[in-house]
Sequence to fold (112 residues):
Amino acid sequence: MLRRFFAIPLWQRTAAGFVLGILAGLILREQAPVWLQPIGDVYLNLIRMVVAPLVLFTIASSIAKLGEGVGAVRLGVRTIVWFAITSLLAVLVGFAFGHIINPGVGLSNLPL
Fold:
C-alpha cells in the first residue's frame, strides 16, 4: 500500500492534500481550529526539529568531503552566505505575507 502511495506523483499528492484540507475546513466550520490545531502544532514542531540539523549537517558534510585547502574554506563561506541570504529572504516574505493577510485576526474570540 505504501508503495502505491509513493507511485503517485508528488504534485498529485500535494493537490489531494489541498483538496482534503479545504473539505475539512468546509465540513468542520467553526470546529476546525479545535480539531486541526493539534495536527498543525505537531507538523510545525516536526519541521522545526528537522530543518536546523538538516542544514547544519548538509553544510558540515559538504565541507568535510572537500578535504583541506582553500576550496573548502571558500565553499564553506559561500554556503553560509547563501544560507543567510535565503533565510533572510524567507523571513522577509513571511513577514510581508503576515502583514498583508493578517493571519489569526478574529481568533481571539474563539470559545475555549
